[in-house]
C-alpha cells in the first residue's frame, strides 16, 4: 500500500536542529530565550509595516489576548466570520462575550462587508456597539481589507485579523498579518510553517506587544516578590519550539512557492472541467499562499462529495469538506448571524485537497488518478 497523502503535514527544512541544539547547549529550555527573540525579529523583518511581534503558545492564545487587549467584557458583542475554524470564535466565549457571526462574500469567501454593517447596526440597536471585528484570511486568501477597514473607521471598531492560515499571503503587496489593529498567525503543525504548536500576535503599537507579553507570562508586576494587579496567562512560546520556527522561517519563501505550485497543478487538472472550480484569487491585487487548495463541486460532476471523498480514502489520500460555518455549529446555535447562505453552500460543495509543500510528483499523480476516473 502506498504511503498516506495528508491534507497538510509538517515539512522540516533541516535548519531547525541547529537552533534546537543551541537551546540545549545554552540551557534555554524555557518559555523565553534567544530563539523566542530571534523568531520575533525574523517575523518583524519579514512582515514589515513596522509591526511588533509577540511569540505565543498558539494562535488561539493570540486571539484570546487580542480580545483582552481590546477590553472585551462579559456580555459584549464581537463580530466574527462564520466560515472559519472554531478557534477564531472560541476566545469570544472565553471572555463571556457574544459572537455575532457574519457570512462570506463570493470573491474571497471572507467577511461580507454588507453583512458586517448589518451586524454592527444590530449591535448599536441593542445599545451595544460590537467591540471588535474578527476577520479571517481563509485558506490563505486575503480578505477585502479596504472595505472592512472603512467600516472599522466609520464605526470606530477595531479589527482582529485571524491570519492563522495566511503567512506569506498579501494584498496589494502588503503582507497578511499586518492588516488588523491586532493580527494573529498560527504555527500549528498543519500550517504553512510550524513550531509544532505555537503562534504569534502582530501589532502596530509597541504598548500592545509589551502588554501581551506581560499577560502571557503570568502578569508579574515589577516587584522583588510576585505582585499581581491583573490576571495572567501562561501563553508564551517555548524557546525550543521557537528554534523550530527559526529554521522554518528560512524555508518560508520556498514553502509559499510549493503550495502555489500545488494550486497550479489543480488548476490544470480542472481546466477543461466546468463541474469543478478551484478557489482562486479574484484579481491580481490578491496573492494567496494557497495554504489549502479548495475545489467546489457542482452537481454536473455526477458524483457526490461524500462519494468522491470515499474514492480518495480508498487510495489513502486525505481530503476534507470546507470548514462548517460557526452559525451552523451546535455549540453556537444561539448566536446571532447576518448574511445569506453563501458559507452554507460552500460548506455543502467545497472540498479541501491535499496541499502540503512536501507533495511529490508521484503524490500528485495519485491524486490526478482519482480525479481522472470521475472527471469526464
Ligand atoms: C489554526 C487556526 C487557528 C488556531 O491556531 P492554533 O495555533 O492552532 O491555536 C485559528 N484560526 C484559524 C482560521 C486557523 O486555521
Automatic annotation (TrEMBL):
Q: Which GO terms describe its molecular function?
A: pyridoxal phosphate binding; transaminase activity
Q: Which GO terms describe its biological process?
A: polysaccharide biosynthetic process
What species is given as this protein's source? Answer: Chryseobacterium salivictor
Which EC number(s) are documented for this chain? 2.6.1.-
Q: What class does this enzyme belong to in the EC scheme?
A: transferase
UniProt KW keywords: Aminotransferase, Pyridoxal phosphate, Transferase
Its family? Belongs to the DegT/DnrJ/EryC1 family.
Q: Which residues carry this modification: N6-(pyridoxal phosphate)lysine?
A: 191
**Protein name, please?**
Pyridoxal phosphate-dependent aminotransferase EpsN
Q: Where is the active site?
A: 191 (proton acceptor)
